[in-house]
Design goal:
By secondary structure, the chain is mainly alpha-helical. It has a domain at 1-102. Helix content is 83%, strand content 0%. It contains 19 helices and no strands. It has helices at 4-16, 25-38, 42-59, 62-78, 82-98, 104-120, 124-144, 146-151, 157-171, 175-192, 195-211, 215-226, 233-250, 253-270, 273-289, 293-306, 318-327, 332-356, 360-441. Helix 5 runs antiparallel to helix 6 and helix 15 runs antiparallel to helix 16 (293-306). It starts with a helix and ends with a helix. The chain crosses the membrane at residues 389-411. Keywords: Membrane, Repeat, TPR repeat, Transmembrane, Transmembrane helix. TPR repeats lie at residues 237-270.
Length: 442
């Protein structure tokens, strides 16, 4: 989260918690904390927020206690002290829930931050649980205050939060649960014409296909996003990288390099440093597999220069392993250094990967995707047949209608003839009966 967003967050809290009019002493302390953080003085920022919380606590001002604790949590996030951030956000949530009136928007924001922290610690199940609670809170918020939510652009939360929840479920190995959410987002976003949500859902469905080695379907998903100019460049870049990864697994290094190169060019212009790191990581792997260790090292060391905060990103530690392997042929000392870095951080990462490997939920959901794709193909084929043969079909329908009409006329005519014949027979029988009676009377 950019530091400048901190001021917006505080102002939002201030307005929603009713802090209007003259700025209070507590507000000054909180704003001073953000100023100190912008000046790279986190320790001073913490002191300001502690004082703000102490004053709010003495006055029994629960709302301002939430503001102070949320600010402490934000400072922890900014300096990557996720443990303290988690404690402070948890405290903020606890105080908020004890308030007479629970501010739904702030509750939702706090829950999202708690989910993000849990994800950083690779506790994906708990992260998914927080996102689920945030989503349920968002639904209540939108239902109670629809105009406010629309005015503030908060309706997107009803799409974003399920998506984030699905990502955490996928990371925890719950591919079936994650996939069902993604399939729903796919159908809903396609119906609504929401290209952003559609692109995100298709990207993730492609990743699941890639994990199942269903490369053709994975490439179809990625290609739809990568070559759709109506989708933002950052998302297209992710799809291009995924497309390159699929070709790398197929052994087509030339196409893999083409898509990695295009993805990196887009990301340098439009994406975050972390996102560029991920592409450079894959790009270096490609160079290494081509047998070009020097080029691979250049890509990986450029990645570390671009984004060096990987101590809080366990999934990125593999770069140390790759650098160790590459330097073994060139510089034993550097190889040993990177090897030590890899060894000291890899255990947790390996545990996470082991839990997800060969997950039956992944196989089950892959089948579910196939069923949906098959159903969509059948519908598409039916529509194509209708478009191609509708004149002939219409002619056949009209002919059948014409024949049925004339057949109905024929049946009606025959029925009338039979009725008339029956009437004549009845009349003749009645007349004969009368004549017979007259004869008897004579």
């Amino acid at each position: 989260m950019p530091k400048t967003q901190g001021f917006i967050f505080v102002l939002l809290l201030t307005f929603t918690l009713g802090l209007r009019g003259q700025v209070s002493e507590i507000d000054n302390l909180v704003n001073s904390a953000y100023s100190a953080l912008d000046d790279d003085k986190p320790t001073i920022a913490v002191d300001f927020t502690k004082e703000a919380f102490s004053l709010a606590f003495k006055r029994g001002d629960t709302y301002r206690m939430v503001v102070a604790k949320s600010t402490m949590g934000y400072i922890g996030m900014a300096v990557r002290d996720y443990e303290s951030a988690y404690i402070n956000y948890s405290d903020a949530l606890s105080y908020l829930q004890k308030s007479d009136t629970v501010d739904l928007f702030n509750k939702m924001a706090i829950l999202q931050n708690l989910a993000l922290i849990k994800s950083k610690y690779s506790d994906y199940k708990m992260a998914a649980a927080f996102y689920k609670e945030a989503y349920e809170t968002a639904r209540v918020y939108v239902r109670r205050y629809p105009e406010l939510a629309k005015q503030n652009g908060d309706l997107s939360l009803l799409v974003d939060l399920p998506y984030f929840m699905a990502m955490q479920m996928k990371n925890s190995g719950d591919y079936t649960g994650a996939g069902e959410i993604l399939l729903n987002l796919w159908e809903e976003s396609e119906f609504k014409g929401d290209t952003v949500s559609l692109a995100r859902a298709l990207n993730q469905l492609g990743i699941i296909k890639l994990a199942n080695k269903d490369y053709l379907e994975a490439q179809n998903f990625f290609s739809y996003v990568a070559f759709n100019n109506g989708i933002d460049p950052d998302t297209r870049a992710i799809a291009l990288q995924n497309l390159g990864a699929s070709y790398l697994r197929l052994g087509n290094l030339e196409k893999a390099e083409k898509w990695y190169s295009e993805a990196l060019a887009l990301k340098i212009e439009h994406s975050s440093a972390r996102s560029q790191f991920v592409t450079l990581l894959d790009y270096g792997e490609l160079e290494y597999k081509k047998g070009n260790s020097t080029a691979a090292i250049e890509k990986w060391e450029l990645a570390l220069k671009t984004f060096d905060k990987i101590e809080a990103e366990p999934d990125l530690f593999m770069i140390y392993d790759w650098l160790q392997k590459a330097y073994l042929q060139i510089d034993i000392t550097k190889a040993a250094r990177y090897g030590d870095l890899y060894t000291s951080n890899i255990r947790n990462w390996m545990d996470i990967q082991r839990n997800q490997k060969d997950n039956p939920s992944l196989q089950a959901f892959n089948t579910r995707i196939d069923q949906v794709l098959s159903s969509r193909r059948e519908k598409a084929e039916q529509l194509a047949l209708i478009k191609e043969y509708w004149p002939l079909g219409l002619g056949v329908v009209l002919l059948l209608t014409f024949l049925l009409y004339h057949f109905q006329l024929f049946l009606t005519k025959q029925r009338r003839i039979l009725i008339e014949k029956r009437v004549r027979e009845v009349r003749a029988a009645k007349a004969q009966e009368i004549l017979d009676k007259i004869r008897r009377d004579l």
